[in-house]
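Readers of this paper often ask what the protein records in our data store actually look like. This encoding replaces a full spatial description with a residue-level series of whole-number codes. For reference, a complete record is included directly beneath this paragraph.
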Amino acid sequence: MSHTAHIPSHRKPRRTTSHMAVRARVAGGVLSTLTVAGVSAASANAAEPAAQTLELPTLTADLAAQVAQSADATQQAAANYALQAERDAAATKAAKQAKADLAQAKKKAEATQKAEAERKKAAASRSSERTTLTSSAGTTTAPSTSSSTASGSAAAVIAFARAQIGDAYILGATGPNSWDCSSLLQAAFKQAGVSLPRVAQDQSATGTPVSLSNIQPGDILYWGSAGSAYHTALYVGDGKFVGAQNPSTGIAEKSLSWDPPTGAVRVL
């Protein structure tokens, strides 16, 4: 017998095959349990929706600058829109005013053309009368009574008119040293107690119309149409008249052939 046979061995005994199989089955059961637990936990996590967290942008200096720039752009666009609206309104107003001015100018042009036509018509009438007086001077310009034999009211009127010869002609003047055509006749007839209208148009429609072939001293001569004459003068006899003709001649005595009148009226 060996001298070491009485000493027990300290080595672990070998595990048998059956013991290792038992331990393998135990380990497999633990792993199965852990696997099922993991699957259940995963299913639970899948069933519950995950909460989402929104991260707001941080207001940095660049972002603030962009916001301010956007606000400025919006304000500028609004200002541009208002300015354009004002320009459109001004253009519309200017167009309306131009249309009104054009209509007014057209109206004035028509009035000017009408006045020119009337002037030419009056000039043609005066030319015709001049021709008539020239061709029949013995009848038309030789009245039956001369100024030297005029008496009474007619003589007073003629005397006053002749006393003003040499005075100035000023449109609208009423004496004593300057006159226009109608104011001279108004003042002259006042010497005979006759009140004449102030303007030539009305004077040409006053009294009784007489033909130029039968005029007498003291009759009123007119140029133009009765009721719308543009000039009047006083017939003084001997084929002459006294009147305030124009600024260049002043108050003067002229023959009928110098400027033949259109018609005549008698108030005395």
In short: The longest helix spans residues 61-135. The domain at 131-266 is CATH 3.90.1720.10 (endopeptidase fold (from Nostoc punctiforme)).
